[in-house]
């Protein structure tokens, strides 16, 4: 099957958790949104996102990634209890594992699976890359640099030295959610990892086309978006081989 469609990914061990009552209540499947390339996939990318809704820009990015030969899978991270809070810890890793198994079950090699996340899901993408065998990771505008975002999360400056996969971080240089001094601390922390890392900042807040305030008619916005997305594509091209 190729193109855009919905599917489910099965949680390992039927969603078993350490707490027996929680295990009985846990769903066994993760709803996923898939965009497959035409022909054989060169690898797979798990796209994490911080909202129940798929913005047009996110869907277009998934389509573009598929156009480059990647099999793209986006899990619904909020499928357990209807919450819209960021998902971290065991639940995040369980959902990622389900997507990982879905991809490898369709012929994608283990080391050709990448993870991409935006905002709080960008934080999740970095944390996944410290705990799971991914080939490459990209975080866009990921907060929680100095302090954990929530239960099950770690501050990124503490997590980054434990990165197990090449990691690219993209940030707005003037984003109040990620102050410059914190970004520099994260850059230093990531440099201590045993893998390749790169942290790039862009002027203003509008390096994401779905970020509030983006003006598609603004040539500077458009050029910045192209530059940022090109880095994402190049990072996966370079490390998922």
Automatic annotation (TrEMBL):
EC number(s) recorded for this UniProt protein: 3.1.1.45
One Pfam family recorded for the sequence: DLH
Segments forming domain Dienelactone hydrolase: 35-239
UniProt-recorded Gene Ontology molecular function terms: carboxymethylenebutenolidase activity
Domain of life: Bacteria
This protein's UniProt keywords: Hydrolase
InterPro entries on file: AB_hydrolase_fold, Dienelactn_hydro, Dienelactone_hydrolase-like
Top-level EC class as recorded in UniProt: hydrolase
Protein name: Carboxymethylenebutenolidase
């Amino acid at each position: 099957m190729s193109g855009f469609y919905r599917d489910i990914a099965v949680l390992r061990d039927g969603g078993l958790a350490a707490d027996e009552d929680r295990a009985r209540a846990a769903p066994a499947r993760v709803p996923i949104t898939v965009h497959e390339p035409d022909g054989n996939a060169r690898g797979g990318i798990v796209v994490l996102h911080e909202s129940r809704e798929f913005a047009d820009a996110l869907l277009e990015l998934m389509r573009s990634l598929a156009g480059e030969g990647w099999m793209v899978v986006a899990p619904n991270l909020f499928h357990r209890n209807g919450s819209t809070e960021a998902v971290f810890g065991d639940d995040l890793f369980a959902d990622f594992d389900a997507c990982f198994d879905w991809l490898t079950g369709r012929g994608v090699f283990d080391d050709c699976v990448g993870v991409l996340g935006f905002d709080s899901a960008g934080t999740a993408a970095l944390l996944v890359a410290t705990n799971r065998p991914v080939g490459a990771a990209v975080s866009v505008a990921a907060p929680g640099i100095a302090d954990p975002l929530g239960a099950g999360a770690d501050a990124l400056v503490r997590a980054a030295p434990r990165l197990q996969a090449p990691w690219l971080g993209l940030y707005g240089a003037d984003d109040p959610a990620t102050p410059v001094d914190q970004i520099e601390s994260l850059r230093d922390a990531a440099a201590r990892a045993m893998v390749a890392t790169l942290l790039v900042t862009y002027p203003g807040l509008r390096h994401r086309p779905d970020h509030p305030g983006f003006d598609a008619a603004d040539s500077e916005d458009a050029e910045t978006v192209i530059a940022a997305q090109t880095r994402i594509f190049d990072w996966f091209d370079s490390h998922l081989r």
